[in-house]
Amino acid sequence: MSQTDSRFVVKGASAEQQQAVDMLAEQFLLTQERLGMIIKEFRRRMEEGLATDGKVLKMIPSYVTQRPTGSETGSYYAIDLGGTNLRVLRVTLDGKGGVSTEHQKFALTEEAKSRTLFDFIAQCVETFLDDHNIRPTGHQPPIHMGFTFSYPVQQTSISSGTLVQWTKGLNVPGCVGRDVVRLLQDALLRLGLRVKVVALVNDTVGTLLSAAYSNPTSQMGIIFGTGTNAAYYENVANVAKWKGPSGSGEIVLNMEWGAFDSDDFAFLPFTPHDIKLDRKSINPRKQAYEKMISGMYLGEIARNMVLWLADQRLLLDGRSSEVLNAMWALDTSYLSAAVVDDSPDLSEIQQIIEKTLNVPNSTLVDRQIFKIISILVGERAARLSAVGVAATLTKRPELLSKPINVGIDGSMYEHYPGFEGIMSKTVSLFIPAEQFKNVNFSCAKDGSGVGAAIIAMLASKEN
User: Fold this and answer.
1) Residue 462: pLDDT above 80?
2) Contacts 24+ apart (CB under 8 A), 11-16
3) Is the N or the C terminus of the chain less surrounded, counting Cβ atoms within 10 Å?
4) 97 in helix, strand or coil?
């Protein structure tokens, strides 16, 4: 592999060093044939998840069955509950596919995280409405809100869902197994607020809807960030497990695709460096796909590779440091910086190794190898990201004969050098050219806020 790519030739390296780099390149650079096999399996897992619950790809029906036109107008509201913050937003739609937002951010208190969450959210909504002077009085219609709740729920309608479990440091007793919209609605009533929660929203479904308002041809919403997930419009007829009204329409599915291949580790290109990361993670044998392509994990894969070479005395003269020995010490942003360091002495990488990681006296050979590791981890992530995109777009080939938009949010897509280009080029290998020319990738912002307000708008119209 490395013979054909001059980027992986290390000037001044020993034969052993070059051999080790060649081996890494062999493991990380995926052939088109290998990617094709993974796509085929991905599609098989999608079909399996559409047929029955409890499969690796969950394919969760979101109960969103409409597409916005982009001509809707008015102000809609959203509550966005994350792991550390809560946002309350007013989103104004201009009728031409454009949106403007105002929001207030509130830090979740320890008490809210462990006891009073829903009353805390209701108080934040009250603060927002009072500060903006928009609290509805007795004779005014209630305000309709979408609620983005980024914790595992079993959705039971557009505006209800039971909590499966708490994650991300929240643990409020008495909520698991209960409808989170009901819990929030009760808290709003306790404050006498005329607010109706009309939509329970997954942030990835929100990303798709936020893209769809500005571009009605949007078919997929994806997050390539700290983690990853995707949502897309499927024909209701193709969702065998769907319990709701059948018909000829469409429904948005939340794929939960980060879990792909987590059950048998058989198709993704696992290396010892991935296995080590997985074993030491807080969720071993879960989210296998996410761990190969997401910002939270790429730095750690690279750190494992650096230590593997150092332990054989093929890098940094066999030295390490307390910093480098600590899990998660190498942030993915350092890989981004390394990939674009084209200075003659790779001075940016020298800073990372010697100042950030605290390993003194790096050589130019060390820095070249560090750069190659960064390129390999990032390029594999971008190419594997294309697997899910290609599998999902080709699931509905009839849509590829006319323009189709894919809205993408997240730090990997926005900031990782070359990510979009590599991902897009890889997708093009698996879709015929006359169809691929119809595919457009665009940046979709703030699915958890704007998207939730747009879903609230659709739900209000439906009611």
Assistant:
1) no
2) 11/364, 11/365, 11/368, 12/364, 12/365, 13/365, 13/368, 13/369, 14/314, 16/312, 16/314
3) C
4) coil
Rg (CA), the chain: 24
Q: Which helix (H) or strand (E) holds 390?
A: helix 364-393
For residues 148 and 162, what is the distance between their CA atoms, to the nearest angstrom?
14
List residues with catalytic annotation: 87, 150, 203
C-beta of residue 291 within 8 angstroms of C-beta of residue 278: yes
- 87 and 75 Cβ atoms separated by less than 8 Å: no
* Phi, psi for residue 32 in degrees, rounded to 5: -60, -35
Q: What share of the chain is helix, strand, coil (3-state, %, to 5)?
A: 45, 20, 35
CA–CA separation, 303 and 373 (whole Å): 9
Range list of H helices, 229-363: 272-280, 288-293, 295-311, 322-325, 332-339, 347-351
Is the CB of residue 390 less than 8 Å from the CB of residue 430? yes
Distance CA 315, CA 17 (A): 8
Query: Which one, of 100, 73, 65, lies nearest residue 446 by Cα?
Result: 100
Residue 175 has pLDDT above 70, yes or no: yes
> Identity (one letter) of the amino acid at 369?
I
CB 144 within 8 A of CB 460: yes
Q: How far apart are the first and last CA of the chain?
A: 58
Residue pair 200/186 in contact (Cβ under 8 Å)? The answer is: no
Mean pLDDT throughout 85-89?
Answer: 94
When pLDDT is averaged across residues 157-168 and rounded to a whole number, the result is 87
Q: Give the angle subtended at the CA of 148 by the CAs of 51 and 99, to the nearest 5°.
A: 110
Whether the Cβ atoms of residue 79 and residue 88 lie closer than 8 Å to each other: yes
pLDDT for residue 224 is more than 60: yes
Report the DSSP beta bridge partners of residue 143: 195
pLDDT, tens digit (0-9, with 9 covering 90-100), for 290-335: 999 999 999 999 999 999 999 999 999 999 999 999 999 999 999 9
Task: Report pLDDT for 4.
Answer: 60
Instruction: Tally Cβ neighbours within 10 Å of residue 116.
Output: 15
Q: Which amino acid belongs to residue 252?
A: V
How far apart (Å, rounded) are the C-alpha atoms in residues 326 and 420?
30
CA atoms lying within 13 Å on the CB side of residue 179: 15
Cα distance between residue 453 and residue 463, in whole Å: 15
Quick one: average pLDDT of 143-167?
Answer: 89
Query: Hey, what are 439's tokens?
Result: 């595919």
Question: Within 13 A of 298's CA, how many CA atoms are on the CB side?
Answer: 30
* Tokens of residue 269, six digits: 């290109």
Instruction: Name the DSSP letter for residue 257.
Output: G
Angstrom distances, CA of residue 52 to CA of 4, 46, 48, 239, 251? 45, 10, 7, 9, 16
